[in-house]
Amino acid sequence: MRSFFTHAPFRLYLGLLLLAVCIVVGGILPWLAPGDPLVWYSAPRNQNPSGAYWLGTTSLGQDVFWLLTYALRNSIILGLIVAGLSTVIGVFLGLAAGYAGGWLDRVLSFFMDALLCIPTLPILILMAALFGGQLALPIVGLLLVVFNWPYPARQVRAVALTMREREFINVAWFSGESSSRILIRHIFPYIAGWSAANFINTVLVGISTESALAVIGLSSAQQATLGTMIYWAINYQALLGGKYVWIGSPVVAIVLLFIGLFLVSSGLSMQSAAKRMSV
Amino acid sequence: MHLLRFIAGRLVVYALVIVFALTVLFFVPRLGPTDPVEAMLAKVASQGAYMDPAQVDKLRQSLIDTFGLGGSLWEQYGAFVNRIVFSADFGPSLSMYPTPVMELIWNALPWTFGLLLSSTLIAWILGNFVGLLSGWRPNSNSSRVMEGIAICLYPIPYYILALVLSILFSYVWKIFPLTTTIRGAPWSWELVSSIVWNSFLPAMSIVIVVFGWWVISVKAQTSALKEEEFARYARLKGLSDGRILTAYILPNALLPQITFLALQIGLMFNGSLITEILFDYPGLGLLIYTAVLQGDFNLLMGTISLSVIAVATATMIIDLIYPLLDPRIRHR
């Protein structure tokens, strides 16, 4: 742990700091909210930022600050679930493909390549339009997992392929260790650092794609996410009314969250690359 | 001979990928809890248009054709693939009746294509230039600042940047137009300048993000490559810095970028869809959005199928040419 902090690049610290701010705002503050900020007319309409309403209120009478905490919470939860499932599925299938080889490898590789070629957003838009103009968050999450597991899978497969030829794997093999033990004890540590970086990156992609869908009004209207906040602000002419704080706060939150995620992800991959070099 | 076999193998994979994509598109409307045809009819009815039963039946038949819902599942699938691949016919648009969907798509396609192509090209040239220079002296202050800026720009989604740009340059400072209006006679200077003027902000939102990525990756490439043996040899030979950069390092730094492009095309396409919607830019994205808002399912199915196939094709083409460009890879 000590070596982690002394050798971690500066960008990792900065990213972790940004993420910590986002997690405090999205993870802890929603518990302190005075009421459900999504309810219309729970506050006076069209207020400018003041002591009572830190970021002002919306034209629908919602407190922007508390709405933002809820939106950040929902977006982060969605990103974490999508990234968690994609990484687990991707690492598992990637290891299976790379380690087993043969027809299993060929079939899995085909699905990875095919899914990587298909753009996600048009498919999501199609589904949203067909099913009543909106997609519930769990369905969006599920679809994002379907389209995002190939990224870790392809990388893990490539690592597993080279692993099979490595000396220490042979040693382990000939000293009678079982294949599952080789996978867990010897191959997994190799891909763990990279998988962590990829996990963070998938959080980013998940939140970004849901927000893209939400900005054009095709994600869930029952839940606040960063994208739906932007959608409502655009829809109620927040810009023409000069209410820049209403539309600006989710935009700033997304930018800070994404820069934080990217810094952590690239910091982690730099670190795992440096670790591999030193071995 | 090896090359031919390689290309043939790739084409087989490409055909399989397209079949897979079509299969996904085929099953999506069938996955949902609601019948899309009835949902569509209900939507038309709710818009207050009165239709006599004969008209409703006709519309239902046309929708059943669009979704290929007649006959057994196999017949439906065959008809669906046949319509998309071999006749490229998606029927008439329902909201702009009776203009064929393909005509609307053909009108929109040059806009999306032009936007993506020009902004990718600009970002690529700028990014390579700045990336090479900052990779040459990776520890200088200006190089660090450049990388810092790039790192802050790259993770921002296109549509967020589009939003920020339109807030700044269309609302706060009214420099660029808020929505796209193209005017001018064909082939006139006025038309060209109007297109450039209106495309500037949408293009910028893509250029800036992609530029960030090129700087990050080209810098990393360059600073690694300049330590390689061949670069050291060139330096010992007494070549100038400029020549080492352009003739020795640049070609090697270019190759991995092609792979990256293959992975990014889908993301860039996604991004341009939303950017177009935000700027009212008359491309494929706006067409998809119109289709969603109007409940025009013929148009929706057409635009989505075409964009999925286009992105898959572009990705496969890049995948195919990459090994042909890299002399170090041999086909055995």
Automatic annotation (TrEMBL), chain B:
Segments forming domain ABC transmembrane type-1: 109-322
Subcellular location(s) of the protein: Cell membrane
Keyword terms of this UniProt record: Membrane, Transmembrane, Transmembrane helix, Transport
A GO BP entry: transmembrane transport
InterPro entries: MetI-like, MetI-like_sf
Subcellular location, principal: membrane
Keyword presence, Repeat: no
Transmembrane regions: 7-28, 111-136, 156-176, 196-216, 299-322
Membrane topology: Multi-pass membrane protein
One GO cellular component term noted in the UniProt record for this chain: plasma membrane
Stated family: Belongs to the binding-protein-dependent transport system permease family.
Name of protein: ABC transporter permease
Organism per entry: Devosia riboflavina
